[in-house]
Amino acid sequence: MENATSQSSRVEGYASALLDISTAEGEAVADEIYRAALALDGNAELINTLSDVRIPGERKQGIVDDLLGSRASKVTVAAINFVVASGQARSLGDIARRLAEMAAEAEGDIIAEVRAPLALDADQLDRLQAALAKATGRRVQVKVVVDPSVIGGLVAKVGDTVLDGSVEGRFTELREQWG
Amino acid sequence: MNMVFNLILATEAVTTTEESGGIDLLLPAPEELIAGILAFSIIFGVAWKYALPTLTATLQSRQDAVTSKLESAEKTKEEAATLLSDYRSQVAGAKEEAAQIIADAREAGEAVKADIVARANVEAEAIKERSREEVAAERERVAGDLRRQVADLSIEVAEKVVSVSIDAGSQRELIDRYIDELGGVR
Asked: Is A3 in contact with A90 (CB distance < 8 Å)?
């Protein structure tokens, strides 16, 4: 319990620091940090490597630079390197999520993390945002994470609520009904 | 005839001779007779005066004793008869009571037997019912397991088929459908 509280406080602290950076650098930075962090967090082997204390910090920084250098801004790469260098690579995803929540809360919105097998086009994003806003009764910022493991449809997470519209989710429902 | 007559005369002669001498021999002298009578009277009077009451009392006493014993015997006999009657009555009562006890015991035994049989029947019925329920539950469990296994297998196969056959176009279509569903339902 104490560890969970401590971990939560730590995530809160790092997210708050990154929010300060992104607020200073511009609105898009928080979203970019979020997407980059979740992309890295989705690779368990990479996270294990970045968490390994036997690997020097310079090597870890080199890995992050190689992966994100050409795809993200310097601020984003620096922010993620900061988290990894602090030994919080395993909390990267949680920190990114909390950062997005804080950024959204600052604007009075809530975050919907959407995992889909491919990127959504603008029309899909608009319709999804409208549908989720209608469902929650609040303005929703949709954060799409491309996840090839999701088969057919998408999975949206709003706060503690998970809306599983994937084929796998349908199959899981079927299993529960028949079980 | 003469001869007979002579005999009678001879006999009468003898008899006359004997009568004058015999009575005198038998009868005491008057003074002796008077003394005898007097002595007898004295003895009789004394006996009458003293011996007779004692004798009478003794006889009466003995008669009373005999009477008493007879009465006592009669009483004892009556008591014995009463006792015998009571005994017979008691024996009869005891026999009747014994018969009643046996009848009651038989009746109680029959009741217990009937109760035991009834309980055994109820218990047997309950056991049968439980067995039927257990068999039904087991059948349902096995059928459920089988259904689940078939469902899991079917879903697994369907998942594999879908994951292999689904292309980007289908993915996009499924995403659109879910977004429409989400917007429509909620």
From this structure: no
d(CA A153, CA A171): 12
Q: A-B interface: how many C-beta pairs under 8 angstroms? A: 67
Average pLDDT for residues A127-133, to the nearest whole number?
A: 90
Provide, as residue numbers in chain B, all residues whose Cβ is less than 8 Å from the Cβ of A132: 182
Is the minimum CB–CB distance between B155 and chain A shorter than 8 Å?
Answer: yes
For residue B70 the two structure tokens come to 């007879």
Q: Which residues in chain A have their CB less than 8 angstroms from residue B155's CB?
A: 171, 174-175
In this structure, what token pair is assigned to residue A176?
Answer: 């529960």
Nearest to A164 by CA among B146, B175, B83: B175
Separation between Cα atoms, residue B52 and residue A31, nearest integer Å? 168
The pLDDT tens digits for B91-132 are 999 999 999 999 999 999 999 999 999 999 999 999 999 999
- Burial class from Cβ neighbours inside 10 Å (0-12, 13-18, 19+) for residue A80 reads buried
Number of H helices, E strands in chain A: 8, 4
> Pairing relation of β-strands A140-146 and A155-158?
unpaired
Give the span between the Cα atoms of A6 and A65, in whole angstroms: 29
Model ipTM value:
0.73
Give, as one character, the DSSP assignment of residue B50: I
DSSP helix/strand/coil, B177: helix
Chain A CB within 8 Å of residue B183 CB: yes
Mean pLDDT along residues A41-54? 91
Which one of B145, B153, B179 makes the best mutation probe of the A interface by having the most chain A beta carbons within 10 Å? B179
The predicted structure's pLDDT at residue B186 = 43
User: In chain B, which ranges are continuous DSSP H helix?
Assistant: 2-26, 30-46, 52-165, 168-185
Does the distance separating the beta carbons of B159 and A151 come in below 8 Å?
A: yes
State the pLDDT at residue B6: 66
